[in-house]
UniProtKB/TrEMBL annotation:
Residues 1-19 form the signal peptide. This is Uncharacterized protein. It comes from Gymnopilus dilepis. Keywords: Signal. The keyword Signal applies.
Length: 217
């Protein structure tokens, strides 16, 4: 009997909450957080998709005569070019190990992009490797950075090429190199090279198993 009484009380409270009308808010004096709480509460009572929720939220906010809040910029766009994908294949990195290798590259490139003014996207031309165009060069990836294209425009191949950010870096021999590709030298202490990737690169570079992989930093 006691249990039945508790159930009836709970049901009564829930029915009362559902029956409550959504509180009208003064759209001229409240904050964006207040709008979100109000719309979220109404969304709880009357479920709708996330897309509808966000649209209603912004419409409600704009009706208050206030400027809509800026959306936070998403993560930088980092892609892997044809040669970079071939490099991953040549190292035998597939499935989970391939995803680890890509995650590693995205981390080191995201950090490096902060030092490239205007960089909006990054295309990995060659994954992190030893040597390459400069024999003896420590571990580095070769990356092309591009500026953000004008919104609402379809660019030709020539126009897209003009978005490339020219590079200038000093290699391990002290020579200054210029061009359209940037060398990204990962920091050993900040970014741990995945074990499978490290083993494959040692074999490719002719290093002994377990030998340290040279880093610039």
């Amino acid at each position: 009997m006691l249990l039945n009484g508790v159930v009836l009380v709970v049901l009564s409270i829930l029915c009362t909450i559902v029956a409550l009308p959504v509180q009208k808010i003064d759209t001229h004096s409240v904050s964006y957080d207040k709008y979100r709480r109000e719309v979220a509460f109404d969304s709880f009572l009357h479920p709708r998709s996330d897309e509808v929720f966000e649209r209603e939220l912004f419409q409600l906010f704009e009706r208050g005569g206030q400027k809509s809040p800026r959306r936070r910029p998403g993560p930088p766009i980092i892609t892997f070019g044809k040669q970079a994908r071939k490099d991953l294949d040549d190292l035998g990195l597939h499935g989970k190990e391939r995803r680890k290798a890509k995650k590693y590259h995205k981390a080191i490139i995201k950090e490096h992009m902060k030092s490239i003014p205007g960089a909006h996207t990054a295309d990995v031309a060659r994954i992190a490797h030893l040597g390459g165009s400069t024999p003896g060069d420590p571990l580095h990836a070769t990356v092309a950075y591009r500026r953000k294209p004008p919104s609402g425009q379809t660019l030709s191949k020539t126009q897209t090429k003009k978005l490339l950010i020219p590079s200038s870096y000093t290699d391990s021999n002290g020579a200054v190199k210029k061009g359209g590709l940037h060398h990204v030298y990962p920091k050993k202490k900040s970014h741990h090279l995945p074990a499978s990737y490290a083993a494959a690169e040692r074999a490719r570079a002719g290093l002994a198993p377990g030998a340290p992989i040279p880093h610039k930093h």
